Amino acid sequence: MDIKTAVAEKIAALAGVSSDEILGFFETPPSPDKGDIALPCFKLARSLRKAPPAIAAELAASLSGFDGIVRAEPVGGYLNFFLDRTDEAKKTVLRVLDEGMGFGSSNGGAGRNVCIDFSSINICKPFGVHHITTTVLGHSLSRIFRHLGFNPVRINHLGDWGTQFGKMLVAYKKWGDREKIESAESPTRELVALYVKFHQEAENDPSLDDEARAAFRSIELHDPENWELYQWFKELTLREAERVYKLLGVEFDSYNGEAFYEDKMPAVIKELQDKGVTTVDNGATIVDLSAYDMPPCLILKSNGGTIYPTRDITAAIYRKKTYDFYKNLYVVAYQQNLHFRQVFKTLELMGYDWAKDCVHVNFGMISMQDMTFSTRKGNAIYLEDVLMKAIEKTRAIMQEKSPDLENADEVARQIGVGAVVWGPLYSSRIKDFTFSWDKALNFEGETAPYAQYTHARCCSVLRKAGGYDIEKADWSCLDNESTANLIKAIKTLPDSIESAAEKYEPYLISRNVIEICSCFNKFYFENRIMDEDEGVKTARLALTDDARTAIKLGLYLVGIEAPERM
Ligand code: ARG
Fold first, then answer.
1. Which residues lie across from 152 on neighbouring strands?
2. How far is ligand 1, taken at its centre, from the CA of residue 331, in Å?
3. Ligand 1 shell residues, CB under 6 Å
4. Which contacts (CB < 8 Å, 24+ apart) does range 298-306 have?
5. Rounded distance between C-alpha atoms, residue 553 and residue 97, angstroms
6. Measured in whole angstroms, how far is the alpha carbon of residue 107 from the centre of its chain?
7. Which ligand 1 atom is the nearest neighbour of the CA of 332?
8. Dist. CA 516 → ligand 1 center (Å)
9. How far apart are the CA of 423 and the centre of ligand 1, in A?
């Protein structure tokens, strides 16, 4: 049992409150010199019927000398505990060594499914930088949930249905060149160009729109030739997207997108009607949500066509049936707040109590500062270009810093990609974010390269030491301030992981990683790791080993690799 739990149980017995509750009361003092654990005694005022300062004083008296506590100090309404640092240090260091990459993992999820709809790119459209947040956030959440014993179901809900595919078809048949598209470095760009041309031409020739409508209708009817072309567009877009996913290490369990629900919608529409959830308004079928201060949710257009919300309602029901999810997450920008509120409310009105388990994990916008790409008018910035540029820039920096590095290309990829991925995962997701090269590739700032660099430094220390025998450790050397701070930063990682899952906020982990890194660097400069004393050296090496693991794990959970040398 860890000391926190032991103290909580002791206080629970004294105060007549459950120890779980006490554990929830504990806070961390603002700085280590004020103690290791703080108990805000006003939380006990009601059950003990006393003023908080009096409670603090009494508890202090009965806890002094308690095993593992050096001192209990009442400060106003707070009681601050100073733990036996040597003992604490030893326990933490051994725990991380023992658990390794499983540090902070749990079976709490009990294998329950968590659907994560993320990335969800659109066919025949650019996979642009604006898709980075959903992609890396969803990827990170899937790793975090897996760490906590859940089974993430990673879903790429492709935007692969709608009248735009009729336009694509017409444009391709009129102006497209199969060879050229097939062999292009970026087939998506070719398709987008055709699509743009369609719009230009249609301005002067409205009959093109009629043709496009007819063409989409033929896709709906699975006309063999047009269906084949439509599948080919999908395949081209996905083939290219796969390159980006590979760079990022992102994988999916399902690519069931909007088209997948085409044949599943009639039943759901009937269900909506049978349950009396929908009304007809000007020929359109809608869900009136005025009672909930929302505009109506459109189910069928007046021409009978289905639409985005219809597909999402159908998809949610399908996911519940197929995965019996514990949570059903949608990692989508906040521009779609209303859409998801409407969809979730409609599901609730259909009588599905699991609507409460659907969560829109929304996030802010990304903009690019000092972007040096040729962004011809209206052209999106492709995520692949940004990643490749980051890798190239990293390669140049490394050429200078460590010209002799083996597998420099691989390391440049890990660092370059990490630099780009980091930004959207280092702040609360709802905040808008501006990407800048200087910030992203700064090896000294609060960045992925800095964390990777610190990890490589730990690896290098351990490599040079050539191993240690843990039995020889003298734990008493781990009590100075910089050491205690490092241990504390490592020790909080499991809590950060739990909170990240609870709030769908991976940045809680990346912040913790940076804290560990800056504490490690301070520890490294203030303490001689390769001390003459074998016991001291061993304890410090073991702690370095912990830092290495904790950084690597934290980075892994936000989807970033940690090279051993750089
Ligand atoms: N394809 C959409 C877009 O790029 C995002 C889809 C999000 N997922 C969903 N189930 N609606 O905006």
1. 114
2. 9
3. 117, 120, 122, 157, 159, 312, 330, 332
4. 299/269, 299/272, 300/269, 306/262, 306/265, 306/269
5. 13
6. 20
7. 7
8. 36
9. 22
- Please state, as a whole number, how many other Cβ atoms lie within 10 Å of the Cβ of residue 433: 17
Could you say which of 1.10.730.10, 1.10.3720.10, 3.30.300.30, 2.60.120.10 is the CATH number of the domain covering 398-428+435-557?
1.10.730.10
Q: In CATH, which of 3.40.50.620, 3.90.1570.10, 3.40.50.300, 1.10.418.10 is domain 114-159+252-366?
A: 3.40.50.620
Q: How far is the CA of 122 from the centre of ligand 1 (A)?
A: 8
Pocket-testing residue among 157, 258, 359, ligand 1, by greatest number of atoms within 8 A of Cβ:
157
Give pLDDT tens digits along the chain (566 positions): 677 888 899 899 888 889 999 999 999 898 878 988 999 999 999 889 999 999 999 999 988 778 888 899 999 899 999 988 888 899 999 999 999 999 999 999 999 999 999 999 999 999 999 999 999 999 999 999 999 999 999 999 999 999 999 999 999 999 999 999 999 999 999 999 999 999 999 999 999 999 999 999 999 999 999 999 999 999 999 999 999 999 999 999 999 999 999 999 999 999 999 999 999 999 999 999 999 999 999 999 998 989 999 999 999 999 999 999 999 999 999 999 999 999 999 999 999 999 999 999 999 998 887 664 444 445 688 999 999 999 999 999 999 988 999 999 999 999 999 999 999 999 999 999 999 998 999 988 999 999 999 999 999 999 999 999 999 999 999 989 999 999 999 999 999 999 999 999 999 999 999 999 999 999 999 999 999 999 999 999 999 999 999 999 999 999 999 999 99
Q: Ligand 1 atom 1: the closest Cα is on which residue?
A: 159
Q: Whose CA is nearest to atom 5 of ligand 1?
A: 120
Sort 466 into a burial class: Cβ within 10 Å, 0-12 / 13-18 / 19+: exposed
Residue nearest to atom 6 of ligand 1 (CA): 120
Residue nearest to atom 11 of ligand 1 (CA): 312
Q: Which of 116, 117, 119, 120 to mutate to test the pocket of ligand 1 (most atoms within 8 A of CB)?
A: 120
CA distance 138 to 330: 9
pTM across the whole model: 0.91
Neighbours of 148 (CB within 10 A): 21
Q: Specify whether the backbone of 119 is left (phi greater than 0), alpha (psi in -120 to 50) or beta.
A: left
Quote the ligand 1 centre to 224 CA distance (angstroms): 28
CA–chain centroid gap for 314, Å, is 26
Q: At what angle do helices 534-557 and 85-99 cross, to 10 degrees?
A: 50
CA 204–ligand 1 middle distance (angstroms): 31
209 contacts: CB under 8 Å, gap ≥ 6: 202
Looking at 3.40.120.10, 3.30.1360.70, 3.40.50.720, 3.40.50.300, the CATH number of the domain 3-83 comes to 3.30.1360.70
DSSP letter at 43 equals: G
Nearest residue CA, atom 4 of ligand 1?
A: 121
Question: How far is the C-alpha of 283 from the C-alpha of 288, rounded, in Å?
Answer: 14
